[in-house]
Structure formats: structure tokens, C-alpha cells
Amino acid sequence: MRDGLRGLTTRGRSFLAAALAAAVSAVILGEKDLLRVAVLLAVLPLLAAAYVGRSRYKLACNRSLDPHRVPVGASSRVVLRLQNMSRLPTGTLLLEDRLPYALGSRPRVVLERLGAHQASSVAYTVRADVRGRYEVGPLVVRLTDPFGLCELTRSFPSVDQLTVIPQVTPLPSVRLPGEYAGSGSSRARSVAVHGEDDAATREYRMGDDLRRVHWKSTARTGELMVRREEQPWESRATVVLDTRGYGHRGDGPTASFEWAVSAAASIAVHLRQAGYKLRLVTGDGADVDATEAAGDGLLLDQLAEVRLDPRGDITTLVRQVRQRGDGGLIIGLFGAVSPAEAELLAGLRGNGATCVGFLLDSSTWLHLAPRARAEADHAHGAAALALLQSGWRVVGVDHGARLPALWPQAGRGSQGFALRAALAETVAGGVK
Question: Is the N or C terminus of the chain more exposed, i.e. has fewer CB atoms within 10 Å?
Fold first, then answer.
């Protein structure tokens, strides 16, 4: 009863206030009929409080998200299934699922009645324009009487996770530099180089085809030897995402960093579909080896939560990439870099690696005065030229650029003499 009285709504409290006013007026005026009205007004909210306060419903709730991983701007359908586990029917139930602000307002659904052991399902949709991992729930059930005089709240502790991943854009097929770099047993043992007598061999195993027996090696070693099957080289690629806070500009979903995250997701998925063994390295310390079948999910989940690091620097990023560097193809997505930082990035070209850099001119995400714009363009050109001179292939990115249109530039061997000349002219003009 005490819980019920605490749960009186504004309507219920108004009834009690009206009852008190009617009772005082009845005493002053000596009207017995008015006193009966006061009693009636007081009894209604008290009965409602007793009814709701003594309700001990056994409810079970199950929540499902379809899908539980969605790209930015897409919707997910949330289905709530509520079941009455007791033998008594419920009253009116108001369901409210708690959501973070990024997913919109809290949905509210009214269930008039659930019979004994009866179940009912309700659904709603959520949409997020900002990537991240969000908690959906817990579900709050508000119990009320038919007149709306009393309301109590019960909640379920369970929550579900909704992951909003970056937008993945399909990319055209392009022959990339370094696509045949990698490893395999045929890399160190080549019949074409050493001749038939030095063919790669191994000991015979039960079930091997006898036609593969290498008799010269067998005679030399005294054990039955068979030719080793040639294994194709493994194409390896590393996608590097720059998370330095001072390297990016803009706010919200249209910031330069969000463009870089979406581009990293698109490139990583594209390379995995092309058969690359992929690794993702971000400036905030993440290092994901996406060689397993669920690699796409690992990559996208990591990119869903990556954030700018205000203390990040190029030195730490280069050191992290080189810890497990094994050559192959390196594709970097960088914000604004200085010529000195570009020289540090030259250290990634060791071990025969081919490096392609998408260099974002993050200043184009801002509205600058003409003089400031000229200085920013000069700094961007100098950094791009420093990367080119160190052996990187550079693709410039301005605000509004689309990755599918830029992607073919990653496969051009010369990178365009016109770009080199334009950059050299920019630097020369800045020196003058």
C-alpha cells in the first residue's frame, strides 16, 4: 500500500485534494451529500493504490535486434516479447525501452491486458547517424490502474548491444602495387632457379601419391622423399588509420576523421574480398589481424569504436606498424602531416613494402580566409611532395571527395608527373 501511495499520479493526487476540499466544505456548510462526494473522491485513488501496489506480476521479457550490427544511417528493428508467467491477468502496462540519445527518443508502447500465461510482442526501429556501440535497454514497465490514478515502475536488468559500423562503399577492381608480395613455401624454394635435382621435397607420408616420389632425393637421403606441392604466395596488406587529433578537422559525421574511418573500412573489406591477408593498425593502439573467416566483423567492430587521440603522434604509429611488419602492401589514411612527419613515414617502406597513402587535406573541411587557405595548401603540398620523394604513392583527398573515384589512383605506378610538377611548383612558390 505504501508503494502504491508513492506511485499516485497527478490525477490521483488531484482526487485526494478535491476530496479534502469537499470534506472541509461539507463540514462548514453542513451538507451531507457533499461529504459523500468527498468520500467517493478519496476512496478511488486509495483503491487504485491498493490495486497497483499489491500487483505482483511475474513477467518475462526477451529483446531481439535485427540486425545487431548496422552501418551509419541504417535502421535496426527491435522486437520486445513480454510474457505473463502468472495465473493472474495483468492490468494496463506501459513499456519504455531506455535508449542513448544518439538512437533517438525512448519508445513507449501501451499493452492493455495480458491474460494468464499470455505473451505479446511489440516492435520499434532505431537509427544512428554516429558510429559506435550502444546499449539498448533496460526495459521499464509501468503498471497503472484503468483510471490512471496510480503508476508504479518495474524494470528488467538485461540490455543488448547495437553496433553502428562505418559506411562501407564498394570499390572498383584495381591492380594494386605489391599484390604478389607475401609468403609461401614456394618463395624460398624455386624449381626454376635451382633445377629439377634441387626440387623442394619432404619425407613420404601415408597416402601420398607415388607418382610424386623424387627418386634422386630418395637415393641421396636413404628415405622415401616426395615433391612438395607448390603453395601460392599470400598477398598481405596492412591498413593504417591515423587517429591524431590535431591531424583532422571538422565535427560530427562530416568531419575529416569520419571520412578516413569510412575509407579504412571500405578498403579493408575490399582487400579481404580480393584475397588479401589483412591487418588493421590504428593510432590509438589497436592492431587487428583479420585473417580469420570473421575478419570483416572484427575490423568493422574495431572501426565502430575508434576515436581521435589528442596525444597521438606519427612516431608511435610507425613503431606500431613495424612491430609485425612483413612487407606486402601498406595503405595509410592520414590527416594533415608535416614534412618532418612525412619523413618518419618513409621508415615504413622497409622489407620491400609498397606504400600507398591517402593524404587528407583536412584544412578543406574548414572555411579559411584566402591567406590562411594559401598557407594550408602550401603545407599540404610540401607534405605530399615529401612522401612522394620517400617512395610513397600519394593520393590527395579534399573535402567532398569520393573514395571510389580516388581508388584507381592507388594502382597507378607513376602517380602522375603532373602531380609531381604541381607539388614542386607549389613548394617553390612558397619558398619565394
Answer: C
